[in-house]
Amino acid sequence: MTSVQQKIKSDESGNRMVHCTTVEDLFLPAARSLIGTLARPFLDQMAITPTELIYSARNHSRIDGAGTLLRDITERASALQAKAIGQKTFDRVREIQALLEQLSIKIRAFEAAEPAIVLKPGEFVAQVSQIMRSGPPDIANLRLQRMLIDTLAGCKNWLEKIERMYALALEAANSPYLPIMDGLLAESVISDLAQESFFGRRMVLEDKIDDLIDIYKGTYPTRRMGEPHATAKKLQQLLKDLDLPETMTAIETSIIQQLASRNPIASSELMTELRATHSVLGRLRHNDRILGGRRALEFIDKRMGRLLTEETIADYIRNQGSMGEKVTRLLEIYAVTFGPNNKKILEGFLQRYFADEDFDRRLLTGEGSGAHKLRILANLYRAIIAAPLGSGEKAAFGQKIAGMQSAFISSTRFFASIEKQTMSTAKKAFQVIDYCQEGCFIPGENLEKAKALARHYLSRPDFMDTYVGHIPSQEGKREMLSSLKERLDKLGIPLPSPQR
Q1: Which of 187, 195, 356, 478 could tie 49 with a disulfide, CB 3.0–4.6 Å?
Q2: What was the pLDDT predicted at 498?
Q3: Banded model confidence at residue 17, pLDDT cuts 50, 70, 90
Q4: So which domain of life are we looking at (predicted)?
Q5: Calpha distance 493→364 (Å, rounded)
Q6: Is 429 among the domain residues?
Q7: pTM here?
Q8: What phi-psi label fits residue 200: left (phi over 0), alpha (psi between -120 and 50 degrees) or beta?
Q9: How much of the chain, in percent, has pLDDT values that exceed 70?
Q10: Strand, coil or helix: what is 285?
């Protein structure tokens, strides 16, 4: 194992609180990760990675000449690190400035003392192996990085650079030097600008996240789009074929960064945005875990928290029509809500509605037939059962709605009103059957009473005459009875006999 590989594995690339005390610390993955975050606009403008910035005197000159950029980056990094260890920011600024000066002197001295090594096509593994045996580990590493930086320096943009890295990774596939290319690829693909070069321009945040999820899972592309870019397909195949943990981690980190932004996932409209965010959460599930882990979940929770305030929910349901529609909308929101605090706000709204002494009247007041009001109650019951409520709340809310429907059937004499209609027995039977199949009755006692009434009409002596008596042929009667049996089977009601 070379010193380069050891450096790649020796530190957590996601640890932004790295506290560099030596020049060598600046080469570690955690330091490069912090540089990649703080210097992102500069890196993207130059189409270079943090590694290329650190190991190149030419790139040192570029950032030195970029106005106050280097000073701003130094101050931001110092503020983060000083706060973490209880140090004065000013003192940390001086320490980092001194380290950067030492780094620049070291790199310039090395480049002045040694000629560059030119990487020959197809000889990546052989030349890296030779370099790593050419001297002490720190000098060998400088030679290696200079060769790679010179090889990548001719790339005009991110797309060319990633294509060249792709080719080198293929060369390194069966060698101990693959982690070198893994690190460089990881530093490249985390860039939004680099992603746009191989994914294409994506205006909607949901599309950006989906592309990253797909390429991680090896399913790119699943969203509807034109012909996918060849480089994206190559990168996906590379991730499938080779062990590239740093690049995979960079894709996950990029997903987290997209979720952390304050841009809408899909829309500024409440339900559209909630559904899109919930859908993204579902797609983040992969092999019994969530891509991005705890941080991804935290940002989804925060996103929904910004949407689901008492005020926004009240405004949304205020214009939803009837009481039944308001409660149904709350349940629809609840079904796509993530996070205990977010759910608690919605649960508070539901509990206030159901505890309202006037809830029954407000729910059923208004125009509409008895069957229409039964449907309101049955639809609300189904929405309650489908919602991911706690078992206790679901049972309490469901029982309340079922009781309300039972009381409505009794107080309006709903079943008796069917009997009073001047219709044939067959028509009365089918009216009840239709109501059952349309979902007018809540499962349990209310549905069973309706099915009992249907059986009562089916068992009357005149049912067969009023149903098939007017059909002249036996074949026609058999078809009618077959159709009836099909409908009754769905309700668990036996076909009446004798058949005629």
Answers
A1: 187
A2: 53
A3: low
A4: Bacteria
A5: 30
A6: yes
A7: 0.84
A8: left
A9: 96
A10: strand
